[in-house]
Design goal:
heterodimer, A: 372 residues, alpha/beta, D-Maltodextrin-Binding Protein, domain 2, 11 strands, 45% helix, 16% strand, globular, B: 302 residues, MetI-like fold, two-stranded antiparallel ribbon
């Protein structure tokens, strides 16, 4: 079931891309049937929570998924996306707020906001001053997922806690035999790559990007694929042994491999050279048709037990402090999910790029991927 | 009576023109307008340089400030030219392969006994009942290292290492040839089926071998079908996005993917539109010229 879901998700994403016409999900709601159109990341919710929301409120949820911020952003900027609630990452959210994509939240309709976590809200304020437009859904890190047995076989003393795994040709060439996937997301791979090179990741000048490009081109031959969601299945099935990806996705791969009992143990590490921390934020587009329902949905998710179930299902930390006591122990005590002070020191965040920087970063990425 | 007849005639001609106007020219005009605009962090993410609400002064200031920067940008970075060339190459080779496979198919269809033809034609059309996307996706399952093809070949001992097909240009060729084959077979079949059998009999009577008769009679007469079919494969293959995205690797650069990354990755709608305009012109112009030449040839022959 999980597997078909992954396939379907990929299909859905591609379908949306293929039909450049943004077919708006029916925003028309009759008086009797209340609906809510949610657009969220793939593999990112506990379906039972959605079901319960519908049972409790009678609001039917149309749930669509994407797997890159770029896809979501283009739909939002084109306008009339038809969605009532979307979940962009904070650095994208920042510039989308500036572009006028979102409406301010009516916090009086979200009493459960009192459960939110100040530590997270403060960090979000860098993107969304005063937390006026968004509420944190989940947050996590970028890191390295690897299959313990396969890596051991390919390279017994592999530096699993370091970016050397993928950025050092001598190591990557060994691991290439069992397969390396990397997130297809320039804004999330290039900053850690700069950190690895000892450069300031906020200084995305042409010179610095050139250095990153040179470094990445050296390991390019050892990277099997750049993709933002396929690595969950690939890692769990043992098709690959190393993936640079989102923390929770890799934990999902871990539990799928454990369920399948296929002799594969997936592990996750935050590289010691430093990595990215990201936040995915719930926000309501300006042209949303079901604004009241969207607020109700946010409020429902912000109930500690509901948010806890989502964290349990997808292995990501959330911005709901009160939910922590209901989350499974193995999640709250895992320093890679709820980082300790030590791990936090290695994590950094990125502010939105201006359009010129964005182009430079993307061009570097194209150069790395295609060799052109 | 007379008036009614004119009305019908007018409608008959007007409907396709209206169709082209609404679904081709108008969107194209919008794309051209965006290609001349400037990017902005706004909703939508560009600022039009043409302001019609200011009347004549808006139009004059538009022309005085026209800088075509999006088009100039296309020359600045070699990626656009490279992906255009690569698309041209992939579309050309795929069309050739499709023709090589499609011609015998269409020929066989046309020569098949009448009672079989409907069934065989159905088989050609049948795949359309499944979504294009799902059919392309199915190829991933067939071509991947642990997929049907590799497992099959390994189990009969033909290979002992899985063939690396998925995420290579080969997979893109397979995807395009498979997806567009019916578009070539159907027009070709229509031409071959109408072919006057007595001409071939005459050629055989006059001493041609069957192979000579094919090359001297059948093939030249089927050329209109070949041309129509090839266009139907070549043009969509040129701008193909889904197949290279799903089956190709990250080094398979095609203009469709480059356009996608301009639009989605860079949020640069003006440059994306400029790519689209150039792509369209570079396809439409040669095709129009080609058709003119053909027409003139036909007139000369007649």
């Amino acid at each position: 079931m999980k597997k078909t879901f992954v396939h379907f998700k990929k299909l859905a994403v591609s379908a949306l891309v293929a039909t450049t016409l943004a077919l708006s999900v029916s925003g028309v709601s009759s008086a009797e049937e209340r609906t809510l159109n949610v657009y969220n990341w793939s593999d990112y919710v506990d379906n039972d929570v959605l079901k319960e929301f519908t049972e409790k409120t009678g609001i039917k949820v149309n749930y669509d998924v994407f797997d890159t911020n770029e896809l979501l952003e283009t739909k939002l900027l084109a306008g009339a996306s038809g969605y009532d609630l979307v979940v962009p990452s904070a650095n994208f959210l920042g510039r989308q707020i500036e572009a006028g994509v979102f409406q301010k939240l009516d916090k009086s309709k979200i009493p459960n906001l009192s459960n939110s976590w100040d530590m997270i809200n403060q960090r979000i304020a860098a993107y969304d001053p005063g937390n006026e437009y968004s509420v944190n859904y989940l947050w996590g890190t970028i890191g390295i997922g690897y299959s313990e047995e396969k890596v051991k076989k390919a390279l017994p003393d592999a530096p699993v806690d370091s970016w050397d795994m993928v950025f050092k040709p001598e190591v990557a060439s060994k691991l290439a035999e069992c397969g390396i996937y990397v997130l297809d997301s320039p804004s999330e791979i290039i900053p850690p790559a700069m950190k690895y090179l000892g450069l300031d990741p906020t200084d995305l000048s042409a010179d610095n990007l050139k250095k990153v490009e040179e470094m990445l081109l050296k390991v390019r031959p050892y990277i099997k694929k750049f993709h933002s969601s396929e690595y969950i299945t690939a890692l769990a099935n043992g098709d690959i042994c190393v993936a640079v990806g989102y923390s929770g996705d890799i934990f999902q791969a871990e539990s799928r491999a454990a369920e399948a009992k296929n002799g594969i143990t997936v592990k996750y590490s935050v590289p010691k050279e430093g990595s990215l921390m990201w936040f995915d934020q719930m926000a309501i587009p300006k042209d949303a048709k079901n604004v009241a329902e969207a607020h109700e949905f946010i409020n429902f998710l912000m109930e500690p037990k509901n948010m806890a179930r989502i964290s349990d299902a997808v292995s990501y930390a959330n911005g709901n402090k009160a939910s922590q006591e209901f989350i499974k122990k193995e999640i709250t005590s895992n320093p890679a999910i709820y980082p300790t002070e030590d791990v936090l020191k290695n994590l950094f965040t990125m502010l939105p790029f201006d359009s010129k920087t964005q182009r430079l970063v993307n061009r570097t990425w194209t150069a790395v991927k295609s060799g052109q | 009576m007379q008036r009614q007849f004119d009305w019908g005639r007018f409608l008959l001609i007007a409907i396709p023109f209206l169709w082209l106007l609404i679904f081709f020219l108008l969107p194209f005009a919008i794309v051209v307008k965006i290609s001349l605009s400037d990017t902005a962090n706004a909703l939508p993410p560009y600022v039009p340089t043409l302001n019609l609400s200011e009347g004549w002064s808006g139009i004059t200031s538009f022309f005085s400030q026209l800088d075509l920067e999006s088009f100039a940008w296309l020359l600045d970075d070699k990626i656009y030219f490279l992906s255009y060339l690569n698309s041209l190459k992939i579309a050309f080779i795929s069309t050739l392969l499709t023709l090589l496979i499609g011609y015998p198919m269409a020929y066989g269809l046309a020569k098949a006994p009448q009672r079989w033809r409907t069934v065989l034609l159905m088989l050609v059309i049948l795949p359309f009942w499944t979504s294009f996307l799902i059919r392309v996706y199915a190829w991933i399952g067939i071509l991947k290292p642990e997929g049907l093809l590799n497992m099959g070949l390994m189990s009969i001992g033909l290979i002992d290492q899985p063939l690396a097909i998925i995420n290579t240009p080969t997979a893109v060729y397979i995807g395009i040839v498979y997806s567009y084959l019916p578009f070539l077979v159907l027009p070709l079949y229509a031409t071959l089926e109408k072919l006057d059998q007595t001409l071939i009999e005459a050629a055989l009577d006059l001493g041609c071998s069957p192979i000579q008769a094919f090359w001297k009679v059948t093939f030249p007469l089927s050329l209109p079908g070949v041309v129509a079919g090839c266009f139907l494969v070549f043009i969509p293959a040129m701008g193909e996005f889904v197949i290279p995205d799903l089956l190709g690797g990250s080094d398979t650069i095609m203009i469709g993917k480059t356009l996608w990354s301009e639009f989605f990755g860079n949020r640069d709608w003006p440059v994306a539109s400029a790519v689209a305009v150039v792509l369209l012109l570079s396809l439409v112009v040669p095709i129009v010229i080609f058709q003119r030449i053909q027409e003139r040839q036909r007139e000369a022959e007649a």
